[in-house]
Amino acid sequence: MIIPKTLEEIELMRQSALLVSKTLGMIATELKPGVTTLELDAKAEEFIRDHGAVPGFKGLYGCPSTLLTSVNEQIVHGLPTDRPLQEGDIVSVDCGTVMNGFYGDHAYTFEIGEVDPATKRLLQITKESLYVGIKEFRLGNRVEDVGSAIQRYCEKEGYTVVRELVGHGLGRKMHESPEMPNYGKPGKGKKFVEGQVVAIEPMINLGKRNIVQLNDGWTISTRDGKPSAHFEHDVALVNGKPELLSTFQYIYQALGIVSNEEDEFRAKPLVL
Predict the structure, then answer these.
(1) Which of 182, 183, 219, 185 minimizes the C-alpha distance to 202?
(2) Could you read off the pLDDT of 224-267 as tens digits, one per residue?
(3) What is the per-residue pLDDT across 190-211, written as a single tens digit (0 to 9) for each?
(4) What gap in Å lies between CA 172 and CA 199, rounded to an integer?
(5) Which of 16, 157, 207, 218 could connect to 99 by a Cys-Cys bridge, CB 3.0–4.6 Å?
(6) pTM, to two decimals
(7) How far apart are CA 80 and CA 109, in angstroms?
(8) What does the pLDDT read at residue 269?
(9) 219-225 long-range CB contacts below 8 Å, 24 or more apart?
(10) Which of 122, 124, 110 is nearest to 29 (CA)?
């Protein structure tokens, strides 16, 4: 069952989502060759607690970490390790918080130094597909309208869409109805309702779409060992249209990137 939120609850969720965004912005300043994802995990937990929240992932379903850090061929759910990041790596950093009784859940795939052109293109298309999907999250549409838009956008560029892992509704629980696949057929799935909040998160592979779970019981990788990209936003349906609760602007501020990609999904300008 979809659980719509009031405008007051959406504002509380925005606070949770923006704390995740700020945490990812902090992580962006720390990412460089030689840093381990375990070090990043400790910094993220301290940052979240210092801001009056608790990590959303740690302890959830037995998760041992604040961040999920998925490197190169790892798709999602990568556990932090003591392996130093290397020049040319990519790393999806997925983070959650709980504030005011609501979750935020948000991810970005970072480049470590100079990344090869084929992988850089994969990241670009995956991030673009996120906004293509968000445009379809509007009153009158259904769940698979979002997924089919993402699928078409990525497959026309020669990439494959992970099927076993999906986005989801978000609220007082990390995972609420509906599941939000990144593939599908237009006009299929549950109808969207005013006030619902979802996490939309394309997971797109450079090679084949097949996946494998590692022995740690968490990390999901591509079966063929080729890179995968993952981007995620929290989005509310307000006045029939998608409104971003999370932002990549703290990341861009840290990295010196100028972008207006989020502007059309904000009711008012974001103040950093």
Answers:
(1) 182
(2) 999 999 999 999 999 999 999 999 999 999 999 999 999 999 98
(3) 999 999 999 999 999 999 999 9
(4) 13
(5) 16
(6) 0.97
(7) 15
(8) 84
(9) 219/70, 219/74, 219/77, 219/78, 219/79, 220/70, 220/74, 220/75, 220/76, 220/77, 220/78, 220/164, 220/165, 221/73, 221/74, 221/75, 222/73, 222/75, 225/73
(10) 110
Question: Both tokens of residue 19?
Answer: 């704390």
User: Which amino acid does the sequence have at 120?
Assistant: K
Q: Is the pLDDT of residue 133 over 90?
A: yes
pLDDT at 272 over 90: no
Return the percentage of the chain with pLDDT > 90, whole number: 98
Going from the C-alpha of 89 to that of each of 27, 68, 69, 99, 107, the distances in angstroms are 15, 16, 12, 32, 17
Q: Are 261 and 253 in contact (CB under 8 A)?
A: no
